[in-house]
Amino acid sequence: MRKLIPQLSAMSIVAWTAFSGALWAQENQVVVELYTSQGCSSCPPADALLHELAGRDDVIPLALHVDYWDYIGWKDSFAQAKFTKRQKGYARAGGWRTIYTPQMVINGAEDVVGSRPMKVTDLIRKHAKRAPRVDLDVSRSGNTLRINAKSLAGSEPCDIHIVRYEPTEEVKITRGENSGRSLTYSHIVKDWQRVEQWNGQGTYSAKFSLKGLGPVVVILQEPNHGAIVAAARLR
């Protein structure tokens, strides 16, 4: 489903190895954002693809449910207006004329219809091959999250985002385009916060308080919906 908007990106760098609760930069991890809606009949295949990606250690899949299809009969129980705003931000940055569901954004840099597995796989492979720009180390002790980053290639400034998600939930839909279906959703983003900006030079170290013990993702992204330069996950 497409939604017209006015004329309006990344490279994820870090794969993780768990050791004493920490993540260490070893391989490139690729962030895949799926913009989806429970009220979109075209979305279940993309939701299923994201579920498959959730089983991979080299990919950080995130489902962001948007609210602009709520008016057609079913209010998405996961939708947040700020996820729609983030999708529109990508559209402005990329010069896209439309936003739509299901849309996948790969490392903040390229978009693809979320139900096209071969194209998605090709883009993941492409971004995984790119050289790291930041060495990112994330660790957790109780409700305290520690982030350490080191520039490897004179990176530009980047925003630091902390993302919380629910691994899986099943929803019984009783109205709208998917009425009568029980659908399972994976890696459902519940909270996305931009917490700080780093100048991208030298090293960065900070601690943040977390609520609860669920999964957490740290993303370093160029400002104004630019490329993701590093990401790490604690399950």
UniProtKB/TrEMBL annotation:
The keyword DNA-binding does not apply. Residues 1-25 form the signal peptide. It comes from the Bacteria. Keywords: Signal. Pfam families: DUF1223 (PF06764). InterPro entries: DUF1223, Thioredoxin-like_sf. PANTHER family: LIPOPROTEIN LIPID ATTACHMENT SITE-LIKE PROTEIN, PUTATIVE (DUF1223)-RELATED, PTHR36057. This is Secreted protein. It comes from Pelagimonas varians.
